[in-house]
Amino acid sequence: MKFQCLHLLQNNIIFKIMNQRFSLLLIISFLLHGCSVYKDKTIKVEKEINLEFPKISEIKKEEISEKSKDKSLGYFWQVSEGIYPYFDHHKFENPISYERPANNFVLKVDYFFNAEGDVKLKFYEWNYNEKIETPREIFTDKFEEIKLFLSEKIGNPASIKSEDLKKSTEETVRDDIKWKSKNLNAYLFRFKGRGGFDQIRLALYKD
């Protein structure tokens, strides 16, 4: 009888240990799967950002081939001089906007062009993807990836400004990076909010 009780006790202990190990494996598997989901849905920045400035007709063809959605407002609007200092130097048509197929982000690109079809400004905007609940860490990684990409293509930034959300009394802070060169200028900035708000914007122009 004692032997049977001891045997049952041993079996119970072994079962509990195996159950704990199985639970641990499930947790590890879930975490790894979660990381792989974000990794699989990450689009390389060189595939998102085109540093060339073809005619707007060529851009339309390219966006359509990528299955982007036309999100144009259908009327004229403009960005501030703080983003694009030379906006008033041109006479623009109504901007055209496209939303790329969603991945970790919802990426929208606005194109500002003149009557001749010459694109003068590209304005990229990476937003939160509600379907997969894009975490803040992914925004940080994307911002750094864009920064490295532009630094490789244009050179070292002309200016860098960073605000610490934890130290700030504001609800939203902004990080700014600017590049200037003879052939291309870029202004990259990111908004970070206490309520989880995150957004990355990039202006590219040649003026």
What does it look like?
This protein has 207 residues and is α+β, with helices and mostly antiparallel strands. The protein is 35% helix and 26% strand. The chain contains four helices and eight strands. An eight-stranded antiparallel beta sheet has the order 1-2-3-4-8-7-6-5, covered by helices on one side. It is globular, with a radius of gyration of 25 Å. It starts with a helix and ends with a strand. Mean pLDDT is 85; it is low at 5-9 and 22-40.
Relevant terms:
single chain, 207 residues, alpha+beta, 8-stranded antiparallel beta sheet
Strand order of the largest sheet: 1-2-3-4-8-7-6-5
Query: Which outline best applies?
Result: globular
| DSSP, total strands | 8
Distance between the termini: 92 Å
Beta-strand content = 25-35%
Structural class: alpha+beta
Number of contiguous helices: 4
Mean pLDDT: 85
Let me know the largest β-sheet: 8 strands, antiparallel
In the predicted model, the low-confidence regions spanning at least 5 consecutive residues are 5-9, 22-40
Strand and helix order: HHHEEEEHEEEE
List the helices and strands and how they pair.
Layout: H1 2-40, H2 45-48, H3 56-65, E1 69-70, E2 96-99, E3 105-113, E4 119-128, H4 136-154, E5 159-161, E6 172-179, E7 185-193, E8 198-205
Brief account:
The chain has 207 residues and is α+β, with helices and mostly antiparallel strands.
